[in-house]
Each structure stands twice: as C-alpha cells, then as structure tokens.
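Our collaborator T.R. sent over the components below with a one-line note: 'Predict the complex.' Nothing else. No constraints on interfaces, no templates requested, no preferences about which chain binds where. So this is a plain run: every listed entity goes in together, and whatever single assembly comes back becomes the starting point for the next discussion.
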Amino acid sequence: MTVPKTLEDLIEEFKKLPGVGRKTAERYAMFIINKYTIDEVHQFSEVLEDAKTKLHQCSVCGNLTDEDKCYICQDNFRDLSTILVVENAKDVFSIEKASEYKGLYHVLNGVVSPMDGMGPEDINLESLWKRVINDQVKEIIIATSSTPEGETTALYIKRVLQETDILVSRIGYGVPVGLNLEYADDLTLSKAIENRKKIS
Amino acid sequence: MTVPKTLEDLIEEFKKLPGVGRKTAERYAMFIINKYTIDEVHQFSEVLEDAKTKLHQCSVCGNLTDEDKCYICQDNFRDLSTILVVENAKDVFSIEKASEYKGLYHVLNGVVSPMDGMGPEDINLESLWKRVINDQVKEIIIATSSTPEGETTALYIKRVLQETDILVSRIGYGVPVGLNLEYADDLTLSKAIENRKKIS
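Returned assembly:
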C-alpha cells in the first residue's frame, strides 16, 4: 500500500465519474484534502446527498426538478401548443440555454432500444399521450438524437400520433452554424444537403 | 433559471475541482443523478468527509496518513540512514510507485517562497532538523521541484546542514527515460548535458 486507505477510498470514488482516470482522481482527492476546509467538505457532501434525494422527475413532463412541477411547466408565459420531446433533462438545459424555444417539453428519460431491452413502455411516453389528449397541443417537435434508437423512438411517436390532428415534426439536421465544411462528418453533410432550403 | 437549484449547487461544487469547467461539472452531476443509487451517493459523501477529517500529517515525516505515523515510518524494513525530502505527499506516492527507493521521507508540505510570504519557518523543516540530530541519518536527498522556489528550498537545507557530517544531495535532472530528444524542453536538455556521465 502506498496511499492511506482513507485517501485511496476517495480516489476510487472520483474514479467512478465519467472520463476520470487514476491521475485525475488523485488530483481531485489531493485538492479536496489540501484546499478544502472541513466546512467546505461538509457542504460538498450535503449538496451531493441533496441532489440525489431531492431531485426527481417533473410530474407533468418528466424534466428534472426539486419541486412537484418543473419551472417550465410552472411558467405561465410558455406557449402551451407546442411540446418538444427530448431524451433527457440535459437536453432541456441545452435548448433552454439557447433561449429561442418558448414552448413546453416532454422528457422521455430514455429511448426505444430493443437491443437493450427498452420498449416504448419503459420510457416516459404514457404521460405524453395523456398530455396530447387533455392539453391544447397543436405540434409535437421530436428532438431525440439522430442515432438508430433516437430515430426509432421518433418514428414510434409519429406512428402513434398519426391518427390525431397534431402536427409531428423532427428538428432539423445539418452542418452546425460556424463549422467549416471540412470538419463535418459524412452523415451530417448528407443530411445537410437533403435538408437544403431555397434561398429567397 | 434553467437548472433546478439542487442540481445547480452540485454543478457548482464540481466546478471547484481543478481543471473542471461548466460542461464537465454538468456531466459529473448528471452522472451522479442518473447512475448512482442513494446508497452510493451516501458512500461518496461519507468518504469525502472521512478523507478530510481522518487524514493528517504523519507525526514524524509530515506524510499524509490516517494513523499517528505513516506506513513508511512504521515500516521496519526501511533504510533509516537516508531521508528523501519532497514538497508534498503526492511526491511520496509517485516515488513509492516506482518501488526503487527504500529509505525514509520528509514531506515539507510547501516550499520556501518569499514572493508568497512563505519562509523556512512556514514549512515542515523544524522536525527535519530534529530527525537529523536524533536519528542515524547519513544522507539527505533533496527532491524539491526544479522551480526557483524548489531550488531556494534545496539551497536553504544544504546551508543549514553544511556544518554536519550529513551528505546532502539533489536528485538528478535530465531527459526522461523513453522520451525522444526533440520533445524535451531547453532547460531539461541543458540540465541533461550538465549532468552527463562517463560511459564505463
């Protein structure tokens, strides 16, 4: 043993985080030990526990929240006629950061993936059908990722809703704004050409 | 607000870690929320608190330990005649990992740095002089880093001990083993030439 057990335990905890190897975990652990006061460590551990115990899915849209309804479902200035369907709460934060979209969200917390044994009943779809029936929804924008699983999920939602009057759309795929063409991958380029628009 | 407060707090905590920006902090926080069970989070927070409350400096050498003496000072098979002086506990772990050195250590927990108001009395030197007088020490190897502060500290130790019979040495600097010359920086190359050895 070259490292005291208490320190080794902390390094091991940090190593569980995504993309953190031994060296980075050691760096984080030594930083905590050298730079943090006991109060700061206490706060860190409290925040950790709080995040896990207080955060749960919004009862309406499945977004992450520490109240009953998420702040978007509570917001009276949202456009109630549009629901944007995303895979997880992080996608909501990303889209909200762009501050462009003003409608509601529906967070699936997963995708249909037969390979992983995930069927439509395993993701947050049941409540979407309920919202579609009860609320004044006119359009569903599907923003699942452009992976096979994301596409399957999009197709499934489209099929279920095709008998209704609701417009089901998919977000646009193409070359990211500001990206030089040579850095775009083949699939994105094909999609971008497919999604071309007439210049008016 | 786009992120629930409990989550934002956790992201802010992760952002305090060295080299962690907003994106990485978000990734860590979402990973904790999505993949950890309550028990795992509880364990993480416990390990954090333990590391800060239980770890302290070894009463002999200043190394990090969760007992009174560190495992090296407790080890009966160490060569008691040599003390290797390092800046911090992490250096001990690095040298121990190489499993070459069999002597003792002395961890300064800092360097002499007049710019930062750190004098020789602010680092763990008092106990080094005591060890030198009481123990059967024959050689002190100084392995502080080759920064101005590290060099100043090395020089200071050398000066204090020059009246004694103890051999004071500095670790060798040169091109790292396995590194192509073209990737070595100028200072390292100069040091490597200065530290050249006759091939026997």
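Summary for T.R.: Chain B touches chain A through 53 residues (CB under 8 Å).
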